[in-house]
Amino acid sequence: MDEAITNWLDSIANEKLDPEDVERSLRYAKDLEQGLAKVRTFAQGVSIFGSARLPENSKWCKMAEKLGFLLAQNGHAVISGGGPSIMQAANKGAYEAGGRSIGLNIQLPHEQHINPYVTDTIEFHYFFARKVMLTISSKVYVFFPGGFGTLDEFSEILILMQEGKMPKMPMFLIGKNYWKPLDKFFESRMQKEHLIKANDRKIYKITDDITEVVKAANKIGHPSIHENLYNNPVNK
What we know:
CATH topology: Rossmann fold
Structural class: alpha/beta
């Protein structure tokens, strides 16, 4: 048995944790272990985030589908949360282009059912484990309009880049009309009151041009399946 696992089990015994907490920690570990095993089967691709509630014929879904298609055409794996709407559209585009279409699904009482356009999938119980995998599996991050979940995913990756806990990789917010008011809030309130720096707002780019995403992915290229930005000890 790995020494780290042995030490972890010993620490659990020494701490005399409540049995419920022990079981909970094991469920956390299982989600993470299964997720890491899956994302290590493909080279880092492009994670696409966005609403699970928009209709399929919305302009954002159509853009997400086109983006998924273009990315797959250029040899990039397309990764989404595996659900409907924006996620399904991105997966559909990649699937129809014959590319790798990954869905990292979350078990929810509503909204979230795995879409039919994924070539690889895994279900998570915990949001945090799923977010780790959506991050570690990617070299470019794309955010279409969405609700609280999309904002949560955006802000988490943003803070990781801001604080140097992960490399600064291309990060796009698709939809100027949708995202500009949020950026304006960052500038007029947070930046003005010295809660963030002007450079923090340069971590992401707001655009209506999905080809910028493809160009950014192409510039990074196609790393080996055995390579990962997070193999650097600083980012583990």
